[in-house]
Amino acid sequence: MNHSEYLLTLQDDLRSYLNGTMESEKKKTFEALLQTDQDLMGEFQRHRCLDLIRRSNTMLKAQPDIRQILKEPIEPDFRQYDELHSDKPARRYFSGKLIAGAAIGVILLLIGGAIWRHSAQQTEYLQELADPFMKPYQNIVHFNQQHSDEAYPRAMEEYENGRYPQTVKLLNEYLRSNNNENAFFYTGMSLGMIKKYRQAISPFKSAAQSKSFIAPVAKWYLALSYLELGEAKEAAALLKELENDDSHGADARLLLQKLKGI
Questions:
Q1: Which pLDDT score, from 0 to 100, does residue 3 have?
Q2: How many helices (H) and strands (E) does the chain have?
């Protein structure tokens, strides 16, 4: 089992323990590990907090039909009271629209809060899936010594040294007058390494649309970027295209399995 698979298995174990679905023998072993492994205990506490948030999202399963509430004004009926007190001036009935509006406002706030919590929780889960795989891809670009002063070679030197902001700056300079799928890919890769996933989408797309060796690699990292952004649908569509890829097929199938039901 590689490190990525280990992390995903650990997440499954934490969820099954919290959900009460872990087998009894495995549960005893897991609880013993919790007592001795501080890192595991830290992950357990974090997942426990997420689980509490998940359980509080009952509003998402029982949203009222707000349109039905708005259909008719709420009007208190004082007729019986007025019949008993006919000697007093007739009471002026009032519409309960103000009360209904306030109630609806509260309901909308509660629903909005629950939706936001659910969205944040789902995004964090997707990020946990992507993080083990979001590592810098090796440099496959090589140059002759005579080109060493140009922006592209200097960019790749910065990339190899892990100086990703400088890599992005030099590659953008190069791409102003050139159309190169590898340069697009390493621009996206460098942006991903500094967690600018939204900005990485465009260069990854440019590289993925090419016919070169780098296209499926770019598609893989594009899918991971969507996961980091919490956009499961877009990620799943790309992962399905990679299911039979020689390099990323196994990992793509693993992530697709984790995305079921989202």
A1: 56
A2: 13, 0
